[in-house]
Design a protein that fits this description.
The chain contains seven helices and nine strands, in the order E-H-H-E-H-E-E-E-H-E-H-E-H-H-E-E. The protein is an alpha/beta fold and 216 residues long.
Length: 216
């Protein structure tokens, strides 16, 4: 039997913010997540066989406007992902000035607020999905995100390559549906990880000499 070719695209910050909130609420480490182990086990269960090859790509950006400690934690995690076999694609943050809201007590109405927005991740994910489909590099793709900005590229890939399967995997969260994104891929092309899976598939606190920077 021919091995199924699996592609996994991870919207890093889309998942990270949910992990961060869960870790804060539950006081249990989930940000040191071993995506490769989680994915291998989950996909084996999802498709009913371990007869597959997998390529995992993690998209993120170093927040250089944050503290050195925060940047070091992120860089440590990226090293751990790479050591596990995950490919990493980095974008960047851009400065953006916005008007203060009416309730803002720290700024005058004529002052601007400096924000930092992550750039390139959604574009990088979309380009990669389309490129991998055009080069026939996968049979099934798992998109780990709940961002509806991916609707156009998912729809286009499904139109151009109807035999390609695209499974939407939003972060684990109760009572939340990504209707637009799901409708783009197909109502049955959906998989959501459970929190007990996330908790289980963490890197060891010392992984290849890399120490868990978020240990609770």
């Amino acid at each position: 039997m021919q091995r199924k070719r699996i592609l996994v695209l991870i919207d890093g910050f889309n998942y990270y913010h949910k992990l961060k909130q869960y870790q804060k609420n539950q006081n249990v480490c989930v940000k040191w997540l071993d995506y490769m182990s989680l994915l291998r086990a989950s996909i084996k269960s999802h498709i009913g066989t371990d007869n597959f090859n997998i390529e995992v790509i993690y998209f993120s950006a170093i927040a250089k406007h944050r503290s050195n400690e925060a940047q070091l934690r992120h860089r440590t995690y990226i090293k751990a992902l790479k050591a596990s076999g995950v490919n990493v694609v980095l974008g960047e943050f851009k400065e953006k000035y916005i008007d203060p809201c009416s309730d803002c007590k720290q700024k005058r109405c004529d002052e601007k607020i400096l924000k930092h927005e992550e750039k390139h991740t959604d574009v990088n994910v979309a380009i990669t999905l389309l490129e991998k489909a055009m080069t026939d590099s996968f049979d099934r793709a798992y998109l780990l995100s709940e961002d509806n900005d991916y609707v156009p590229v998912v729809k286009r890939v499904k139109e151009l390559f109807p035999k390609k399967e695209i499974i939407i995997c939003p972060p684990p969260q109760k009572n939340y549906c990504v209707h637009s994104l799901l409708s783009a891929s197909g109502e049955h092309d959906f998989y959501r990880f459970r929190w007990n899976q996330i908790r289980h598939f963490q890197f060891p606190d010392n992984y290849n000499g890399l120490i868990n920077p978020w240990k609770v």
